[in-house]
Structures are given as structure tokens and as C-alpha cells.
Design brief:
Layout: E1 2-6, H1 14-23, E2 32-37, H2 39-46, E3 56-60, H3 71-77, H4 82-91, E4 97-100, H5 104-115, E5 126-132, E6 135-140, H6 150-166, E7 174-178, H7 189-199, E8 205-210, E9 223-225, H8 228-253, H9 257-265, H10 267-277, E10 285-287, E11 293-296, H11 303-318, H12 321-332
Parallel strand pairs: 1-2, 1-4, 2-3, 4-11, 6-9, 7-8, 7-9
Antiparallel strand pairs: 5-6, 5-10, 10-11
Helix pairs in contact: 1-2, 1-11, 3-5, 4-5, 6-7, 6-12
Length: 339
């Protein structure tokens, strides 16, 4: 499986991202990489590690769409930007999927312009796996579509269900609609209409509205459906809350010598907790409903995050999720907007 990796757009040093990418080859013999970026710098980084040269190609470009650049302007004026070249490799069937830890808007735009949507998909949503007590759940949309109609959310529910079944291995995923309360009457006009639409879809296991605090509880929901505005706020709130908790713990530990000794004994536990809460542990979010794989990483993705992202790309693409989505949209009626 060939995977195109935009190695030039992340915030961390290129060498760290290259070495993290190549490390993934040690965990899966089925993966081959096409590293997109400055060829000279990539080659220099590769010279510092042992790897199978037959499994790594370099696609040279010096153009990069920066984190602060307008995605529309970048896509228009930088035709050979690393994220565009990576997406183009998928469109040309030279790779099955691409990943970028760079400008999220540019990554989404590159995926849509170069790869395109599956026929019948209204809006491709961004889905991510998140931790909860005793396991994990998935949530979509995480920011690709800020304004969503009930039709979009209905399709998101179907896509999320397919993802949870084929990637998370859940036989009958429970689907919940993100809302401010559990009651059917809660929410604004958009969520109320979406609730009515989802309730009529008998082929998904819709459990009703789900509050943000409940989705983090053990064994409550497997797929949370939201528009991209609310989903992105939830994601960033979780990230910020995680950092806050860690900083509060550190602050309290430093106040007492006995606590410091205890912290040293608890160091392995704290490391495990930190790893679970880090975006690097999951590596990437996935843009569903495209004619190829498109994966979005955090700008601060580390070397280990690159490794995990590539392994998760392989897992997703091997599960043929997008192929199944096309069939499920037809079977559930949402492709034709019949509920």
C-alpha cells in the first residue's frame, strides 16, 4: 500500500517527521511511503536512519502552504505545494491515501479539488477517534463543515456508523446527536430537525441526543454526530482541558516534598495518561466520503505522531471504509434524501 506523506507542512522539524514516518515501516510490511517535500532535506534526514530504500520514494517540491496562509489563496497560487502534490498522487492512483500535518483548510481543499467526493456524498465530514472512560468513541464532523443541514447530519450518521463498524470493530454502533440536553425537545431548530431525521432512519442504532459530558462516560455512545462548528469546539475544549489537568497536577505536586516523591512513583501512570490524551496517540483525523484516503494531522504532530498516523492510515484504507459508505448511503436512503 502506497501512502503519500506531506512531510513539509508540519510545525516540527522536517527531520523528526521523516524519521517518524520511516519508523512506521518497522511495524507493517505492507506500507510503502512517498515523502513529499524538499528532496535534498528529506534525503539528508533519511541518511540518519536505517530503512528499506525500496519502500520509500521522494516527491520533490519546495512550495508549502503555511499555517497562517489562506487555503484558497495557497491552493490557487501554489500549484506544486506539498499538500496538493500529496493529494494529487492519490488522484493519479499512485497512492491510496495522503496525510498532512499542515494547514487544515489547505488539506481539506486539496482533498476535495484533487480527489473529489464519492457520488451521492453531500459534504465529506472529518472524523476522529477520541478517548473516553474505558475505551474510545468517534465523532464527526470535527471542523470540515461549519454550517450543516439535517441532510448532511443524516449522512454523517451513516458514515460514522460505517467507520465505527469497520475501524473500531463495533457490530452495532450506537449513534448519538450532540446536543445541550437528552430530551427530544432540546436544542435549536437545526438540531431538532436533525433529531427528527435521524429518528426515522431505522437502519442505524440512533440513541437520541447526547450531552458532551455523557459521551466521555464508559459505554454510552460509539458515534457522536455534530456540525463542524460544535465538533471542533468540543475537540479543542477537550485538548485544553487535558492540558489544564496536567498543569494543575504539576502545580500541586511542587507544593509539597512528599507529593514530589509520590509523583516520581506515579511517573509511569502519568506518562500513560498523557499518551492517551495526546493527539499523537491517534495520529490523524479522516475525511470521509472521498474517492481515496485523506488524513488530517495536528500542526504539532511529533515523530511518534507520524508513525501512528501512518499505521492508522493503513488500518482505515485496509478496511475499505469509503467503498462501504457508498453502499450504505444507498441502502439507508440518505443518498436520495428519502427517510
Amino acid at each position: 500500500m502506497n501512502l503519500a506523506i506531506d512531510i513539509a507542512s508540519g510545525e516540527n522539524p522536517l527531520e523528526e517527521l521523516v524519521l517518524g514516518s520511516v519508523a512506521s515501516l518497522n511495524y507493517n510490511d505492507d506500507i510503502n511511503l512517498i515523502l513529499v517535500g524538499n528532496g535534498e532535506e528529506i534525503s539528508k534526514a533519511l541518511s540518519k536512519t536505517k530503512y528499506d530504500a525500496n519502500r520509500v520514494q521522494i516527491e520533490h517540491t519546495v512550495e508549502v502552504i503555511g499555517m497562517q496562509e489562506s487555503p484558497a489563496v495557497g491552493i490557487k497560487h501554489k500549484k506544486n505545494a506539498s499538500v496538493l502534490l500529496a493529494a494529487r498522487l492519490v488522484a493519479e492512483k499512485k497512492a491510496e491515501g495522503f496525510f498532512s500535518p499542515g494547514n487544515t483548510g489547505a488539506t481539506l481543499a486539496a482533498a476535495l479539488t484533487e480527489i473529489g467526493r464519492i457520488k451521492g456524498v453531500l459534504r465529506p465530514p472529518l472524523i476522529s477517534v477520541l478517548p473516553r472512560n474505558g475505551g474510545e468513541f468517534c465523532m464527526l464532523d470535527m471542523g470540515a463543515n461549519v454550517d450543516c443541514t439535517p441532510d448532511y447530519l443524516a449522512q454523517f450518521a451513516v458514515m460514522g456508523r460505517v467507520f465505527a463498524k469497520r475501524v473500531l470493530g463495533i457490530d452495532d454502533p450506537r449513534v448519538g446527536l450532540l446536543n445541550i440536553g437528552e430530551e427530544d425537545s432540546k436544542g435549536n431548530q437545526a438540531t431538532k430537525k436533525a433529531f427528527e431525521r435521524l429518528e426515522k432512519m431505522k437502519k442505524i442504532n440512533f440513541i437520541g441526543n447526547i450531552e458532551p459530558n455523557d459521551m466521555l462516560k464508559e459505554d454510552v455512545v460509539d458515534v457522536v454526530v455534530a456540525d463542524g462548528f460544535d465538533g471542533n469546539i468540543v475537540l479543542k475544549t477537550m485538548e485544553g482541558a487535558g492540558r489544564l489537568v496536567v498543569n494543575l497536577i504539576k502545580s500541586e505536586i511542587k507544593k509539597n516534598p512528599i507529593s514530589t516523591v509520590g509523583a516520581l512513583m506515579m511517573k509511569p501512570v502519568f506518562k500513560t495518561l498523557k499518551d492517551k490524551m495526546s493527539s499523537d496517540s491517534y495520529g490523524s483525523a479522516v475525511l470521509l466520503g472521498l474517492n481515496g484516503g485523506a488524513f488530517v494531522g495536528h500542526g504539532k504532530t511529533s515523530g511518534s505522531g507520524m508513525t501512528n498516523a501512518i499505521l492508522n492510515m493503513n488500518k482505515f484504507l485496509s478496511a475499505k471504509v469509503n467503498d462501504k459508505i457508498a453502499k450504505e448511503l444507498q441502502n439507508t436512503g440518505v443518498k436520495r434524501r428519502i427517510f
